Amino acid sequence: MNRNLKLMLVGFAVLALFSFYQAFDLKASVERGKTVYGAYCMSCHMAEGEGLAGVFPPLAKSDYLKDRSRLVKIVLLGARGPMKVNGVDYSGEKAGFSLTDQEVSDVVNYVRNAWGNKGEPLRPAEVQPALKASVKDYQPY
Question: Residue 67's CB: how many other CB atoms inside 10 A?
Fold first, then answer.
């Protein structure tokens, strides 16, 4: 009986954690991210994420948005050096922003789910691990 009680408690704990993880509201995050984008990103990447040819890479329908860890690093630490976006070479510098994990999650979710992009959500709890992850072809600002 004691073993059954333990198994039942473990089962409830797993269900509780799973339901908490699933409860993330991507739609609300994207809406908040639109505001963050407007305040920090729109002046370079433009209102519709089209960027400025040869200067600021596009975010709309961008092949560069697949690596969430790289995006977190770019948002928080900035970036420099060469990058290829949708087959076009860019070589510039972008300073990082001082944002909360929630703001980073929201703006990444917005960019990855606007203008024809479709990406899995980035939760605030995933921002710091992403920031520490090893990323190929990335140079901080």
Answer: 16
pLDDT in tens, 50-87: 999 889 999 999 999 999 999 999 999 999 999 999 99
The C-alpha atoms of residue 13 and residue 58 are separated, in whole angstroms, by 43
Assessment of whether the complete model's pTM goes beyond 0.85: no
Rounded CA separation 71/106 (Å): 12
DSSP bridge pairs for 91: 82
Which of 93, 68, 69 shows the shortest CA–CA distance to 82?
93
Spatial distance between the Cα atoms of 91 and 80, rounded to a whole number of angstroms:
7
Kindly state the tokens that stand for 59: 């975010």
* Domains of the chain, first to last: 25-132 (1.10.760.10)
Give the dihedral of Cα atoms 118, 123, 127, 130; nearest 10 deg: -60
Q: CA-to-CA distance for 91 and 85, rounded, in angstroms?
A: 11
> Which residue in 139, 40, 134, 39 sits closest to 90, CA to CA?
139
